[in-house]
């Protein structure tokens, strides 16, 4: 077996797309693209592949589509965990000691370094993410509110049953689409979405050997009030759930449970509503010639269609109407 060589993790970059339709394009992809795997045709067939994805500081996320199928083998050493939802077709993954089959209705969470090869069928589509163990450990520690430095043992292949796993898949798709349209630097919503996705992964994925997620402690008002006070004082900058939980003196899981019990909302919903309220106040206090986009960006809304949709749902009118009414 050919030994893989060590290499650095992929660098952060904007959304990318590779379209492969012939042998020359496939060779160029394998030589020039900063990918961790080598793509090969199946039994000498012409290969048709489209790979679209992007990266942030803590994860990579991409969608793969192929009419013909393909075979991949690792090119570099990467200490990351692969999470994959196969949407169409099937994928046979050969690890050092076992094989896994990914197909619609099933999901996979495996170590990249354990892979020997992956073979995708024809008419194949999958949504895949890779996350570093250190990022998952940090999220696990924040979620549980304890100093545990060891990840739980997760079942490698699970049936896609139950609402939590379906919500995780939808959140992954939403993060993918957000990366696709771009994430400007002032955006205050995407970091929350990305963080929530990792917490959903840790909470929704079944654990091996009878491990159980700890139940939350009974609700009290004081931690939620501390969390609300911290949110109100920091609405104009990037907010993450783990720092809000730290300010409240509890773990992320308990923060989410107590917040919903005491307010009827998730922390993310509360943050978005309060930022919308601040934008609404600024619009109502501004002159008619003021920029709606500038006011929205002040409170972290960098995509105007998303901002307008949320604003109208909360206040019953568009931001531009609110600004003109001020005049």
Automatic annotation (TrEMBL):
Residues 225-325 form the HTH araC/xylS-type domain. SMART domains: HTH_ARAC. One of its GO terms (molecular function) is sequence-specific DNA binding. The keyword DNA-binding applies. SUPFAM superfamilies: Homeodomain-like. Keywords: DNA-binding, Transcription, Transcription regulation. It comes from the Bacteria. PANTHER family: HTH-TYPE TRANSCRIPTIONAL ACTIVATOR RHAS-RELATED (PTHR46796). This is AraC family transcriptional regulator. It comes from Lichenibacterium minor.
């Amino acid at each position: 077996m050919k030994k893989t060589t060590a290499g650095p993790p992929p660098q952060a970059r904007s959304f990318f797309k590779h379209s492969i339709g012939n042998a020359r394009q496939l060779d160029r992809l394998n030589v020039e693209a900063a990918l961790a795997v080598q793509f090969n045709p199946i039994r000498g067939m012409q290969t048709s592949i489209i790979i679209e994805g992007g990266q942030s500081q803590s994860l990579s996320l991409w969608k793969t589509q192929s009419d013909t199928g393909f075979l991949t083998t690792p090119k570099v050493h990467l200490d990351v965990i692969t999470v994959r939802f196969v949407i169409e077709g099937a994928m046979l993954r050969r690890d050092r000691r076992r094989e896994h089959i990914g197909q619609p209705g099933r999901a996979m969470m495996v170590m990249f370094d354990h892979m020997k090869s992956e073979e995708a069928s024809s008419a194949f589509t999958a949504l895949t993410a890779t996350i570093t163990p250190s990022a998952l450990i940090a999220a696990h520690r924040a979620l549980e509110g304890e100093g545990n430095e060891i990840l739980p043992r997760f079942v490698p292949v699970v049936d896609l049953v139950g609402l939590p796993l379906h919500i995780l898949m939808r959140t992954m798709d939403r993060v993918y689409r957000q990366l696709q349209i771009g994430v400007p630097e002032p955006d205050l919503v995407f970091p929350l979405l990305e963080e929530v996705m990792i917490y959903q992964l840790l909470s929704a994925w079944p654990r091996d050997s009878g491990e159980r997620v700890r139940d939350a402690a009974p609700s009290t008002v004081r931690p939620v009030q501390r969390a609300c006070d911290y949110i109100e004082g920091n609405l104009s900058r990037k907010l993450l759930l783990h720092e809000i939980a730290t300010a409240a003196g509890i773990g992320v899981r308990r923060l989410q449970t107590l917040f919903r019990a005491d307010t009827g909302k998730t922390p993310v919903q509360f943050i978005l509503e309060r930022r919308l309220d601040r934008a609404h106040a600024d619009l109502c206090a501004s002159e008619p010639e003021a920029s709606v986009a500038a006011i929205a960006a002040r409170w972290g809304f960098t995509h105007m269609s998303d901002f307008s949709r949320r604003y109208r749902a909360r206040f019953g009118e568009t931001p531009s109407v609110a600004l003109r009414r001020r005049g």
